Amino acid sequence: MPFFSDPYFPGRAAAYCDSASLSLIPFSILIVMNEQFHPSDLSDTAPPYELISIADCLHPTMGQPSHDWAYMAAAHLIGSPANIAIAAILEETGKLAGADRAWMFEYDDDFLHFRNTEEWARKDVSSHVGDLQQTPVTMIGWLHQWLVTGKAVMINDVANLPRPARALQAEMLRQNDKSVLCVPIFHNCVLRACIGFDATRTKRRWPVDEIHQLARCAKLIGIARYGRAPVDGRRDVVAGNALNGAEPLVHLHMPGRTRGVPLAAIVGLRSAKDYTQIWLRDEAAVLDLRPLSFWIGLLPKSSFLRIHRTTVINISHVTELDRHAGPTKQAWTVRLRRFDQPWAVSRPYRQELRSRLGI
């Protein structure tokens, strides 16, 4: 297996898998440099995850501008309205990368729903741009938990995705996807969209250089799409489609049924191994069939706060903070609306809790 040098830790090598290793690694997590990512976030992990640094992705090294995707993307974005430019960028990068589809989806303002907005597909490859409209983010929750932290995800083998990705896997298989590359688009430190490639004819692992180039295109698209006023009204339409003013729902996957509840109704969440116990405002806890890590990636940080390795709370439901709890009078606990049982606060999360409560 060949190796490349890790730019953040000189002298240390990071594994880079060639095509012969494809069957062993069904998906990869690729670090994308943006406002939310720092070199210290790098960590070692075992298969099936593969961490590849693209820290230099914003500094192209190609000598020929015609071979530089970011140069091409900038030319389109300067010369055309954003949506027209993005469509052209997807087509050109998709062809250059040997993809069968290139696509983009955007999040609504509530960040609980997403919709396909642009797609290019090769001749004789099915198009699905109209399929996922106002779709709950919970459907792509496994993917979303990585995108929101500034990581790109390369799925080398759709058929072997882990169990928490089953809903996403079913949709990808319906679209006949064998491999998928997903790169997040941020603006002002907020995840706004995602672009990527599909391979439908055979499994594929895109080269690191092409991932670097697509990440640079994503950066430019984020600036052009969300950093200036729309000229075609499409962004206003996207925002206006957010359930026509209705309170957005997040869907709980419980044994035998799925239920939509408003975010404000969730009081707290606790890990139950591979599942999550969720306390609701008007009833006892229910069991969601997904891990807490899924919910940490989904829930907006403006309303929810982690207070323990296994616990997340809705900050608006905190009724009391006790900083002298327990026999030693040194433990911290919070009480939440409608629930008398105290919730423990671990030391690493205390300062953030105080800040959020304004004390």
Structure description:
With 359 residues, the protein is an alpha+beta fold. The protein has 2 domains: 237 residues, Beta-Lactamase (2-Layer Sandwich), CATH 3.30.450.40; 93 residues, OB fold (Dihydrolipoamide Acetyltransferase, E2P). Helix content is 23%, strand content 33%. It has 8 helices and 20 strands. The strands form 5 sheets. The protein has an 8-stranded mixed sheet with strand order 4-3-8-9-10-5-6-7, with helices on both faces. Strands 15-14-13-17-16 form a 5-stranded antiparallel sheet. Strands 18-19-20 form a 3-stranded antiparallel sheet, with no helix packed on it. A hairpin with a 2-residue loop joins strand 11 and strand 12. Helix 1 packs parallel to helix 5 and helix 2 runs antiparallel to helix 5. The protein is elongated and about 65 Å long. It starts with a strand and ends with a helix.
Secondary-structure topology with pairs:
Blueprint: E1 3-5, E2 13-15, E3 27-31, E4 51-53, H1 69-79, H2 82-96, E5 101-107, E6 113-121, E7 135-136, H3 141-147, E8 151-155, H4 166-174, E9 179-187, E10 190-199, H5 208-226, H6 234-240, E11 249-254, E12 257-262, E13 266-272, E14 275-280, E15 283-288, H7 292-298, E16 304-308, E17 311-314, E18 318-325, E19 331-336, E20 339-345, H8 350-357
Parallel strand pairs: 3-4
Antiparallel strand pairs: 1-2, 3-8, 5-6, 5-10, 6-7, 8-9, 9-10, 11-12, 13-14, 13-17, 14-15, 16-17, 18-19, 19-20
Helix pairs in contact: 1-2, 1-5, 2-5, 3-7
